[in-house]
């Protein structure tokens, strides 16, 4: 029994939605899928996919544009009427395609998939590289740039599905503003078509701003140079550019990050971030999260930017401004660390507690007894449970032919969890 016969035998039931992937070089509907399309009462797909359907096919066309939910509800309505539905997609519908959304609405038992090679696979074959090594992200229609920051922080080879908003030139600008300039950008245009073009730029800063790029494009970022420093929890203080010892010492840093109990998808605020050491090392644990490091002092803010670029911790979003006003446009956090931002009033602490999500954790470092008392009293006024640790650290120093221990300033670490 050949593939076509097997397909016909499987698809006698009319209540399935048949989701077929088209190859990027298919000029028309492939023969093994033509039977489905010819039989369909309704054919759903993007403009390019629908253009491949022959004029003599009787099924109504429904273009996938605007609200996907609206289209899917129409599909569900037609299925319930006993109509034969075919959805056309590019490549593999379950690889950053419509397949996942269809399953969410219709359930997996009502759908059959027919995948084709993806754009990623074709691009990798052009470069003769193993596509299993590529970290793939999709910015297509998503309006969220954070997957890009996470990818360049933790990966050496990144494939990007783009769209009109996040096109290659826009990505170049975003990356350079973040300080990322150690990746080669390879732009694939019109893969599988006569106008196919592949262009590589070792220095993304040199990509012409007026270059003409086809809207049918795919981007591959390939790391060509490692960051000067590999960041990890507990880095030596000397690894960071900081002002006259104004830095959360590595021992305190480790304890504070530990008390935050970070989940990998948390949003973290580091308030009074200074040179950014806590934010940078916390980002090591937030591979699917967000990190905002807020600092008002211009000199320290510039040091933070330097440290982010030196370590390649591009997941950290540096914010220069005065608190609490500059916090208004930030997303509500799951975790907050206040190392140098409490100040002489409780304004910042009050704003932080209000914005912290229910069940979130707030960790405060205090050196002065006055600060400790203000924070403690405010937690008590809220009725939140909290605990305090006094951390005393001494480091070895050479003395003649022997060693002595030199104590650092004691630090109080306050830890509380917002009810809810």
Question: Helical amount among residues, as a percent range?
Answer: 25-40%
Please give the order of strands in the largest beta sheet: 13-12-11-14-15-19-16
Instruction: List low-pLDDT spans.
Output: none
CATH superfamily of the largest domain: Vaccinia Virus protein VP39
The biggest sheet, with number of strands, parallel, antiparallel or mixed sense and barrel status, is:
7 strands, mixed
Put the structure in a nutshell.
With 420 residues, the protein is of the alpha/beta class.
Report on this model:
The protein is α/β, with parallel strands linked by helices and about 425 residues long. The chain has helices spanning about 5-10, 30-40, 45-50, 70-80, 100-105, 120-125, 145-155, 170-175, 250-260, 275-280, 300-310, 345-355, 370-380, and strands at about 15-20, 40-45, 60-65, 85-90, 110-115, 135-140, 155-160, 185-190, 195-200, 215-225, 265-270, 290-295, 315-320, 335-340, 360-365, 385-390, 395-400, 400-405, 410-415. It contains 13 helices and 19 strands. It has three domains: about 5-115, 3-Layer(aba) Sandwich (Cobalt-precorrin-4 Transmethylase, domain 1), CATH 3.40.1010.10; about 120-225, Tetrapyrrole methylase, C-terminal domain (Methyltransferase, Cobalt-precorrin-4 Transmethylase, Domain 2); about 235-415, Rossmann fold, CATH 3.40.50.150. The protein starts with a helix and ends with a strand. It has a seven-stranded mixed beta sheet, with helices on both faces. The longest helix has 14 residues, at about 300-310. The chain is elongated, with a radius of gyration of 27 Å. The model has no long low-confidence stretch (mean pLDDT about 90).
């Amino acid at each position: 029994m050949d593939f076509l016969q097997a397909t016909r035998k499987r698809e006698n039931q009319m209540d399935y939605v048949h989701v077929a992937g088209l190859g990027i070089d298919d000029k028309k509907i492939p023969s093994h899928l033509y039977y489905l399309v010819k039989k369909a009462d309704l054919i759903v797909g993007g403009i390019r996919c629908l253009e491949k359907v022959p004029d003599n096919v009787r099924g109504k066309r429904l273009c996938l544009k605007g609200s996907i939910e609206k289209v899917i509800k129409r599909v569900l309505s037609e299925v319930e009427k006993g109509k034969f539905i075919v959805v056309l997609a590019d490549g593999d519908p379950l690889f950053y395609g419509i397949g996942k959304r269809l399953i969410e609405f219709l359930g997996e038992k009502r759908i059959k998939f027919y995948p084709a090679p993806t754009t990623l696979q074709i691009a990798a074959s052009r470069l003769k590289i193993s596509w299993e090594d590529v970290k793939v992200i999709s910015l297509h229609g998503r309006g969220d740039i954070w997957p890009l920051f996470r990818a360049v922080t933790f990966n050496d080879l990144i494939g990007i599905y783009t769209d009109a908003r996040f096109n290659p030139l826009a990505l170049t600008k975003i990356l350079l503003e973040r300080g990322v300039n150690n990746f080669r950008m390879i732009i694939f245009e019109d893969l599988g078509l006569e106008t196919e073009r592949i262009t590589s730029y070792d220095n993304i800063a040199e990509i012409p701003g007026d270059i003409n790029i086809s809207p049918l494009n795919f981007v591959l970022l390939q790391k060509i140079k490692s960051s000067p420093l590999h960041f990890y929890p507990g880095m030596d203080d000397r690894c960071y550019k900081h002002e006259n010892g104004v830095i959360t010492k590595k021992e305190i840093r480790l304890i504070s990050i530990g008390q935050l109990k970070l989940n990998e998808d948390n949003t973290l605020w580091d308030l009074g971030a200074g040179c950014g050491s806590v934010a940078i090392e916390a980002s090591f644990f937030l591979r699917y999260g967000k990190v905002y490091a807020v600092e008002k002092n211009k000199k320290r803010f510039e040091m933070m930017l330097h440290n982010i670029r030196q370590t390649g911790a591009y997941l950290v979003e540096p914010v220069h401004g005065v608190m609490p006003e500059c916090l208004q446009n930030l997303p509500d956090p799951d975790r907050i660390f206040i190392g140098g931002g409490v100040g002489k009033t409780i304004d910042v602490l009050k704003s932080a507690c209000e914005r912290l999500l229910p069940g979130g954790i707030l960790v405060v470092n205090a050196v002065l007894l006055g600060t400790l008392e203000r924070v403690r009293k405010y937690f008590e006024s809220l009725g939140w449970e909290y605990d305090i640790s006094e951390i005393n650290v001494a480091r070895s120093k050479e003395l003649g032919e022997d060693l002595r221990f030199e104590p650092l300033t004691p630090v109080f670490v306050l830890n509380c969890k917002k009810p809810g």
